[in-house]
Amino acid sequence: MLSKKLKIILCSIAAVATAVASASLTQDNKAQGAVVQETTKCEGNSVTVTDLQAKAIKVEPIGSREFSDEREAVGNIDFNQEQTVPVSSPWSGRIVSVNVKAGDSVRKGAVLFTLDSPDLVQASSTLISSAGVLQLASKSLERARQLAEIRSVSQKDLEQAISDQQTAEANYKAARDAVRIFGKSEAEMDRLVAERKPNGLLNIFSPINGRVTVRNAAPGMLVQPGGSPAPITVADVSSVWMIANVPESLLPRLQVGARVSVMLSAYPGRRFEGKIVNIGAAADATTHTIPVRSEISDPKHELLPQMLATFVIRTGAPSVMPAVPQGAVVREGDGTTTVYVTENGLRFERRVIKPGVSQGGFQQILEGVRVGEKVAAEGALFLSNALALSIR
């Protein structure tokens, strides 16, 4: 148990400590109050800030920048349909094998699928039989000529042998031409005649360099000439289409060949360049927009069909105008657009402007300021709020 005297001493020490802490807190509060009281001074449309506040406001001179006459429209990416080829077979038959998958890159002349064609079998059989008939007719003619030399055959029989040989030769040439239509080479036809084995296997080749965009083919599927859908579709993806719906009010400013850019969320900060290749012949009655088709170079195959994109269409020559960083522009509550102009970096005057377009992080100014004047490039919103509070 503590003695009564010790308790009295401890209580006295605690009281002194409390008094010292209270005095210290009072001094801190007074200092903080002095800082709080050091605020902006507002008068009319101007704001005067303290040296401390001025350090947080970035001041820059108004410069001139080149602004393109551009309009934006939303659309989507699509294959270049003028470079998309549905690959089918000109002859009927059944697919034996398929050599490609959707998404595969193929070269011109690559085998896409193989067909077993009864038409080719028939043409091959005709070629083999006509080759046999020609061989027999040629031997008969040679024998007739030998007999004619010793006058052991009549002139009529010799002429008949000549006619038979010529007919057989014509039939043989016609049979080769029939097989040649199927894409067989001279060496393949010679081998077919030598082996005497009809072959209906027919390779279907890619007509262009590109990518397989659709594969409907499957082993066992029957193919008919002109059938739909085509077994294989190959597209040249070195370029793609951009299809945008542009407001009809811009029609007088659009022309085929004009340069365009496209921006996609998949590639932030990048622009893909192209040109307008077609302007729709009719406007949509509901949206009053016109489809505008542009061709975009895509050598790395980065743009995929149905990607949503923003199209920037240049509708006129660029112009040089006063410009400020977008952070310097404030949309006020009364609907006006303002910037804060200063000479010394401490006193800022609110100036109503007429804004133009925004490009590359800068705001075009049509009216209200001059090149060379200084504005608050950062901190303009703080100045606007200070003025708004002073009015209240």
Protein model, in words:
This protein has about 400 residues and is of the alpha+beta class. It folds into 4 domains: about 40-65 and about 320-390, conserved putative lor/sdh protein from methanococcus maripaludis s2 fold (Beta Barrel), CATH 2.40.420; about 70-80 and about 235-320, Efflux pump adaptor protein, beta barrel domain (Elongation Factor Tu (Ef-tu), domain 3, Beta Barrel); about 90-115 and about 200-235, RNA polymerase II/Efflux pump adaptor protein, barrel-sandwich hybrid domain (OB fold (Dihydrolipoamide Acetyltransferase, E2P)); about 120-195, Helix hairpin bin (Helix Hairpins, Orthogonal Bundle). It has 6 helices and 22 strands. It has helices spanning about 5-35, 50-55, 120-150, 155-180, 185-195, 380-390, and strands at about 40-45, 45-50, 60, 65-80, 85, 95-100, 105, 110-115, 200-205, 210-215, 220-225, 230-235, 240-245, 260-265, 270-280, 290-295, 310-325, 330, 335-340, 345-360, 360-365, 375-380. A 6-stranded antiparallel barrel has the order 4-13-16-15-14-17. Strand 14 and strand 15 form a beta hairpin. Helix 3 (about 120-150) runs antiparallel to helix 4. The longest helix has about 35 residues, at about 5-35. Residues about 1-35 have low confidence and may be disordered.
